[in-house]
Design brief:
By secondary structure, the chain is α+β, with helices and mostly antiparallel strands. The protein contains four helices and 15 strands. It has a single domain, classed as Creatine Amidinohydrolase, CATH 3.90.230.
């Protein structure tokens, strides 16, 4: 069931979203060669708690850490640990924070140090595909209109969109209805209405879109070993342009 949020619930989601966005920004600044993924996880966890919130991902479905940190061919759900970030790594930071019963969820891909032009382009196309998609995050459009726009933009730039994992509704829990694919044919799925809150999150591969899960039962990697990027924000459907809920001063 799709939950339309009340004005009070929307305000609570804005608060959670600001904390989540600030946590993403903090993690992004830490993406430099020589830092371990566990160091980033600990810093983000401490920050979220300092804001009176809790890390949404910690123990969610058994996930052992507070942040998903995925590197290079890892698409999503990477588990922080002793791995040292190296120059040129593509580091995906996916973070959630729960405040007063509502969730913010966002992600971005950061480059550690220097990177190839192709890696930079992959990150830029992934981010822009999000904004191409949310041009259709308006009342009257359908969920598939968002995904179709993401897919069209990504493929026009020579990349591919992951099919096995999708965006989702977000609110009192991390994953609500509806699912929000990053691919598809326009004109299908639930119709968007004012007050809906969704997380749109393109996952884009430099090669083929086939993925598999590692033996840790969490980390998703590309089957062909190609680089991947991820970008996500939680947003509110309004009367007009969608409102991004996961923004903070550090990102403006």
């Amino acid at each position: 069931m799709i939950r339309v949020k009340s004005p009070k619930e929307v305000e609570l989601m804005r608060r959670a979203g600001r904390i989540t966005a600030a946590a993403r920004a903090l993690a992004g600044k830490m993406v430099v060669p020589g830092v371990t993924t566990l160091e980033i996880d600990k810093a983000v966890k401490a920050f979220i708690k300092s804001q009176g919130a809790t890390p949404t991902f910690l123990h969610y479905g058994g996930f052992p850490k507070s942040v998903c940190i995925s590197i290079n061919d890892e698409v999503i759900h990477g588990i922080p640990g002793p791995r040292v970030i190296k120059d040129g790594d593509l580091v995906k930071i996916d973070v959630g924070a729960t405040k007063d019963g509502f969730v913010g969820d966002c992600a971005a891909t950061f480059i550690a140090g220097t990177a190839t032009e192709e890696a930079k382009r992959l990150v830029e196309v992934t981010r822009q595909s999000f904004f191409e998609g949310i041009k259709f995050a308006r009342p009257g459009c359908r969920v598939s209109d968002i995904g179709a726009a993401v897919q069209k933009y990504v493929e026009a730039n020579g990349f591919s969109v992951v099919r096995d994992y999708v965006g989702h509704g977000v609110g009192a829990v991390l994953h609500e209805d509806p699912e929000v694919p990053n691919y598809g044919v326009p004109g299908h799925g639930p119709r968007l209405v004012k007050g809906m809150t969704i997380a749109v999150e393109p996952m884009v591969c430099a090669g083929g879109y086939a993925v598999r899960v590692l033996d840790n039962d969490w980390t998703v990697v590309t089957v062909d070993g190609s680089m991947a990027a991820h970008y996500e924000n939680s947003l509110l459907i309004t009367d007009g342009e969608p409102e991004l809920l996961t923004v903070c001063e550090e990102e403006i």
